[in-house]
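To whoever picks this up:

The parser on our side crashed when reading a file containing two proteins. I've narrowed it down to the boundary between the first structure block and the second sequence. Both blocks are reproduced below exactly, byte for byte. First block:
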Amino acid sequence: MHTLAQPKVKPPAGAFDLRIMTGLIGILLASLVAGLNEHVTDIAMSDIRGAMAISHDEGSWLTTLYEAAQVAAMAFAPWFAATLSLRRFTLGATSAFMLFGVLCPLAPNLQALYLLRTLQGLFGGCLPPMLMSAALRFLPPGIKLYGLGAYALTATFGPNLGTPLAAFWTEFVGWRLVFWQIVPICLLAMLTIAWGIPQDPLKLERFAQFNWRGILLGFPAITSLVIVLEQGPRLGWLDSLFILRMLLLGTVSLTLFMVNEWFHPLPFFKVQQLARRNLTFSLIVLGGVLVILVAVPGIPANYLAEVQGYRPLQTVPLALYVALGQLAALPLVSALCNIKRVDCRWVLACGLGLIAATCYLGSAMTSEWIRSNFYGLQMLQILAQPMAVIPLLMLATNGLSPIEGPFASAWFNTVKGMAAVVGTGVLEGVTQAREHFHSNVLVDQLGYHPGSYSIPTIGRESLALLAEQIHLQSLVLASADVYRLMALLTAALIIFTPLMATRVYPPRAVSNS
């Protein structure tokens, strides 16, 4: 008696398997390369300025325009991905990001380079939100925290790896490779995404309710505020009429944008989500943590370059040390938070405590410190960064349905992008202000001892050397002050944690021990 062959049952669309995992790795690669590319112009700026004969002020706009477009794109990308499909949108953004990266070094003039770098930032900002959206949608509950840990790599691993690579290319090959290094990774990412991520149908009917008012208010709001934070230290903050106008435009537009999002039937940001206590807490603390994690690693690089005269390549071991350490630390912290008996709020508090310890130890720096003095601080950062970021992702995404994923992604990535800009602005602004303060104090102290130096007798060369020593010592003292400020901010976040965050459990504990 013959039995009828049973037809093969296809797995449901979006079921987690090898193809989905490969596609997620592709989105991870695309997101990492966007983070890697974010600060390459900072590292290679002197080479770019020399090759294109542009001034320091003109060069600063290369970073500003990229950052402004990138942060703005993070806010609106999840909506377009939901409309055009995750696969189609990610492939398009990755290919455009790569194309404009190839064209940047070929720009015939500065204006063309500005345009190309802005467009590259726009499409680069579209990529990190796709990783969070995909992780929330495709990953089974038991391993969802590992996917969120992979997303945390975009905030910790990518930027730290960008410094060594940019330094290597500029030192041994040429500044153009700083832009072209993304090509092979982007090609690999596109292949894996095309094969692994399922193709959802177009939802063009969403354009019938397109939030035109939201994008016309939100885009200038975000870009204006980023410009204020990026250009404020150089232009003197509120002493500049341009900065005042940008600040006014940004605050008014942002206020109107949030009002519009509250009432719009198909918003870019679901403001009602802020009623979730843990989500609001996570966004606030994430902003503070990322400000710290941008400002604190910037202190050693700035100090070693200015005081000890290090080339970018000589500071590479510090950044590489942290970047590679994340590859081991992030899975371990994810596994820790996935244990049911572990309260992720205390993992967060411990991570913040390690950051505070780093800042406290760093505040003792002197002008005699060299690269080796910072290795102990970097070791603490390897553990501190994932312990501070992964619990926040867990608190924010717990209980979210897949349909809410794009909204949570928009919130998280916009805060992430803005916090990175704030961290850079805080580092530059506070360092500059405290450096001026300490310089004035040191000069006043010399004035109290007029017998120590006689201007007519010490000569011009000695006077120039004295001025240089005052400048360097002021920078050291200012760097120590930034460490202290970051320690105080971290302490405030530790106190804030038990006051607002509520206990959550992992989607499904891997271990009950």
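<<boundary where parser fails>>
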Amino acid sequence: MTCVFRFLAAASIIAICPPAQAQEEDSGETSGNAYPEGEIVVTGEGLEPALSNIVYSVTEIEREQIISSGSGRIEDVLSNVAGFQQFRRSDSRSSNPSAQGVTLRALGGNATSRALVLLDGVPIADPFFGYIPLSAIAPEGLARIRVTRGGGSGPFGAGALAGTIELESAGADTLGPLAANLAINDRAETEASAAITQQLGGGFGVVTGRWDRGQGFFTTPAGDRVPASARAAFDSWQVGMRAVAPLSADTELQARVSIFDDSRTLRFDGADSASEGQDASLRVIGRGDWKFDALAYVQARNFSNVVISSTRFTRVLDQRNTPSTGLGGKIEVRPPIAEGHDVRVGADYRRSDGELQEEAYSAFSGLLTERRRAGGVTSNLGLFLEDDWEIGPLVVTGGVRADHTRIADGFFRAVDANGGLVSETIAQDRSDWELSWRAGASFYATRRLDLRAAAYTGLRVPTLNELYRPFVVFPVVTQANAALRNERLQGFEVGLSWQPVDAAVLSLTAFDNEVENAIANVTIAPNLRQRQNLPAISAQGIEGTLAARFGSVSLDASFSLTDAEIDGEGASSPLNGNRPPQTPEFAASATLAWQPAAGWRLAGTLRHVGAQFEDDLETDILRSATTIDLFAQIPLVRNLSLIARAENLLDEDIVTRNSGGSIDLGVPRTVWLGLRFGLKP
């Protein structure tokens, strides 16, 4: 791991140095100087959002909201967006990392993300499992978040089955020379983060870090605890380095290196999981007449997990190593073809490879019973073309993607303690071309009313985890399935944005989405499931947002009401008409904030998540939960503020797992107190 990180860091530094040197040499009054007189100031951002953003259902979260949540965690911020859903209700301190899949519009999931999550344009899902490393995303380092619901056909659109979540890092003008946060809660858990920014000629460099650690809380209800029950202890840290430098008057280079490590304990002593990663990316942005965005990235990840028997409380499985690698890139060009047209054309590529290495042990003797290996390679090459056409008050958009997907080198092999073959699967290599598209229009009906409509299709390739890795959550065994097919989405939506007064905007969207070949954990016998392609999961619903600003008071609210069901191949199927697991019918949140003076912010968030089923047969239910979070920032002295936060203020029991009556709970009432320091840019 250390060698990989040093190599990536060195590569980024080397890439950054030439532009800085060139600027120094050309800064004189030479006739060939390509720069205008004086410094060239870069932004560190991507290209401006496409005009088509007004056609689709888009929500933007600004920095003030991002850094003022009750928990201080990114999943809490995203939970304020209508339709956002994690696979489980647990946050990134008390869940298994491999269960941190995210989706939109109640399309369900099996811990793999159906929404594409980008950080500065880079897909950040784990190459093997497809989960999002939420604990590695520090909210303090972000400038804004843009959430687009519905299938995507632009760059990396093959992963945007349910929508796209774009995270944008904050630059020097936002962070200032130094920003730091330190907090402690009523369980003596700590949270610390810092960002140091340095102007470098016309560019800048940023070093960020965050460290969270604590004893955690008991996820097991008090009446169900045994001597082996353990708190959900956590210890995670992340360090990132980002540099931005000008290449010319309208071109800039962006480089990023990030490492993270996350350790957790779940339910029982010894049930420890760990995830780690080292990521690097290079990006070149051109803002001239021919705008372009060129990106390359590499990810090195690993995951380990120990499973403890819930009856004998001994080790039964050691998933000791799951190394995986992701790499890819894109090139997007926006040529100035014709007035009124915003054309985007390009290509992207992603490749993931990894291998599971685990050992199974007898719960009675503790002796090794099996050694298992599983892994393979998936890749996706996409070609895309989109055009936004502005015709007076009407904006028309359309896009198409052609994706060549490939699944290769797949295998599963199990041998006994003496090396004798127990079972083996050698999967057949396969590849195919698939076409997806999206189109829509937005009409500026009046000064206060916009109308829009859109239709789209989407694509998602199964992850290596879904294809080849079986797993056990005692007593339920879930088998892998090397024959899984690609998921396909088709859907449409209509919506409006209404501004009844200058200070308030209401947005409503009605949608109808269907995922064909939806991958799910399907029950095939008592305590036995298998990953299978369902004929379809359909979801129809309404989602809405309200943003209002009245002087120093603001209100941001959202809701989603969704009728989702499984198409189980006819009325005789036991799944037909069932609601997808882990999918609530109704969810809503509202944040009321008051900023009476500069540096002050008082905010409260009310959030409700409706009841949902644990499994596909609807036998176990996770009851609804309503929570209140609070946040306060009060200036003390120059550049220093007091921060107070409260999670789940009413101490609601949040059921996150229910397997035959064996229950896990989410975060209880937690109160934080801390300090925030920030030098002005």
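After patching the parser it read the second block fine. The CA atoms of residues 110 and 520 lie 6 Å apart. The longest helix spans residues 2-26.
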